[in-house]
Amino acid sequence: MGTKFKRGTKVKILNSPDAEYVEYHTENSGEEQTKIVAGMTGKINIILPNGKYHVEIFDDNGNEFAYAPFEEESLEALND
Description:
The protein contains no helices and six strands. The protein is globular and about 40 Å long. Strand 4 (53-58) and strand 5 (64-70) form a beta hairpin. It has a six-stranded antiparallel β-sheet, with no helix packed on it. It is 0% helix and 36% strand. The model has no long low-confidence stretch (mean pLDDT 87). By secondary structure, the chain is mainly β. The protein has a domain at 1-19 and 36-53 and 72-80.
């Protein structure tokens, strides 16, 4: 299976994920959870067997706060 992104690639989110599949970090579970929207950044965590990407999502301060699955078309590679 050919994939556009590799593990560790930094990406920009182009479409909001389905909220049902978002996993927030446990240390953030007691706080009001930030909605994941287009324009946020993240990093490819793993490539799932169904071809989707499991993305580690960062907040405005660059801290990881959630994970979510995305289709390839919902992501854009960032240049470092």
